[in-house]
Specification:
The longest helix is centred in the N-terminal third of the chain and has 16 residues, at 40-55. The protein has helices at residues 2-7, 24-34, 40-55, 61-73, 78-81, 90-100, 114-118, 134-137; strands spanning 9-11, 17-19. With 148 residues, the protein is mainly α. It starts with a helix and ends in an 11-residue tail after the last helix. Helix 3 (40-55) packs antiparallel against helix 4. 12% of the residues are buried. The protein is extended, with a radius of gyration of 25 Å. A hairpin with a 5-residue loop joins strand 1 (9-11) and strand 2 (17-19). The protein has a two-stranded antiparallel sheet.
């Protein structure tokens, strides 16, 4: 699959690369055939990695979007794409737990006041500290038996 994608690339004016439009049906057919092999998961993984590379280091987001569309349009790829769907992060789970136990942590972003903005100042580290959470962040002193 990777070779098929790379052979369909041409140089572009606004981006580094582009896929020739006449090659898109051929790529769709190649993907469909690749998904019937025992190595279908690796092919999907490889295509996703290519899409990320085109979006980032290869500076061709249009190619990345075209590769993503190829995968989304292919029904056989849906089984493999489900592996990559994001699950709840640890932060999401912690927030859900806090809501469950009745703790409503204040989620806020620091603000940049107009006065500081006009003075050319940015955000300070102290702007990110939530005063209500400071006590929880202090390390607790371990008391040992014997007075020390």
């Amino acid at each position: 699959m990777e070779n098929a994608v790379l052979s369909a690339l041409v140089g572009a004016q606004h981006e580094r690369f582009e896929l020739r439009s006449d090659q898109l049906p051929r790529l769709a057919k190649t993907l469909s055939e690749a998904l019937t092999t025992p190595h279908a998961a690796e092919e999907v993984d490889q295509l996703l990695r290519l899409a990320v590379a085109f979006r980032t280091t290869l500076a061709s987001p249009t190619v990345a979007e075209q590769l993503r569309e190829l995968l989304v349009r292919e029904p056989a790829a849906q089984v493999f794409l489900k592996r990559y769907s994001p699950s709840a992060s640890a932060l999401d789970r912690a927030r859900a737990h806090a809501r469950f136990v009745g703790d409503r942590p204040a989620v806020r972003a620091p603000t940049l006041t107009a006065a500081r903005r006009s003075a050319g100042e940015g955000l300070r580290v102290s702007d990110f500290i939530n005063p209500g959470q400071q006590d929880r962040a202090r390390p607790r002193v371990q008391r040992t038996p014997g007075g020390q």
